[in-house]
Amino acid sequence: MKPLFDKPSQACIGLGGNLDHPEAILRQALKALDRVSEVCVLKIASFYQTPPLGFASSESVPDFINTVALLETSLTPDELLSCLLELESEFGRERPSDGHMASRTLDLDLLFYDDVRVQHSDLELPHPRLHERAFVLLPLCEIVPQWIHPDFSQTCEELLEALPISALEGIQKLTSFSLTV
User: Fold this and answer.
1) Does residue 1 have a pLDDT over 60?
2) Contact status, residue 23 vs residue 176, Cβ threshold 8 Å
3) Residue 136 CB: number of other CB atoms within 10 A?
4) 3-class SS at 102?
5) What is the dihedral of CA 136, 139, 141, 143, to 10 degrees?
6) Among the residues of 35-181, which ranges form H helices?
7) What is the pLDDT of residues 118-153, one digit of tens each?
8) How many beta carbons lie within 10 A of that of residue 111, not counting itself?
9) What are the distances in angstroms from CA 58 to CA 45, 54, 55, 61?
């Protein structure tokens, strides 16, 4: 295990993908992230298979594989976001120019960074839709169940309980993952 940083921050990221063997890509991305000198992956939640959301119903879109990881980092939120975007690109992530939803090899979202609130054109913390997404809250509850969302003053568990039951439909827990495996 890497040495801990002098003044580390903790951040959580969401990972997902639905193209080109997403479980394998998520595992490779987690290992690549842990090799970044300013980042240490502390915990990784189980992988979840999730039906696609936000796509036109006529599209045939493969299910997503999602997880969440807790990091310790000496990077600022903006630096960490840049690192995540670089990793996405390295793993073949292409963003449609029209801004619409698209299948992807790798999606990395910065969910929260300590208790910091950030809002500018490139970054919003905590993630603006974190509290609406069962595929984020389920794995978050595994690794940081008592984290309190600063805008809602609710824990991950409370946010998950507040979701309609329909938000959990079709989500399946798959496997646990460790960087040492």
Assistant:
1) no
2) no
3) 27
4) coil
5) -130
6) 77-90, 134-143, 156-162
7) 998 889 999 999 999 999 999 999 999 999 999 999
8) 22
9) 32, 12, 8, 9
Q: Please tell me the distance from the alpha carbon of residue 169 to that of residue 144, in angstroms, as a whole number.
A: 23
Mean pLDDT value across the chain: 87
Q: Both tokens of residue 61?
A: 């879109």
Angle formed by the axes of helices 77-90 and 22-34, nearest 10°: 140
Mention every residue, 6+ apart, whose C-beta is less than 8 A from residue 32.
87, 90
| Cβ atoms < 10 Å from Cβ of 16 | 22
Distance CA 169, CA 172 (A): 9
Rounded to 5, what percent of the chain is helix, strand, coil?
30, 25, 45
Write the single-letter amino acid at 86. Answer: E
Domains parsed from the chain with CATH numbers: 9-173 (3.30.70.560)
Q: Which amino acid is at 106?
A: L
* Angstrom distance (rounded) from CA 155 to CA 143: 12
Q: Provide the residue type at 172 as one letter.
A: Q
Lookup result for tokens 């910091």: 116
Residue 57: how many other CB atoms lie within 10 Å? 5
Q: Answer yes or no: are the C-beta atoms of 124 and 118 closer than 8 Å.
A: yes
Q: Which pTM was predicted?
A: 0.88
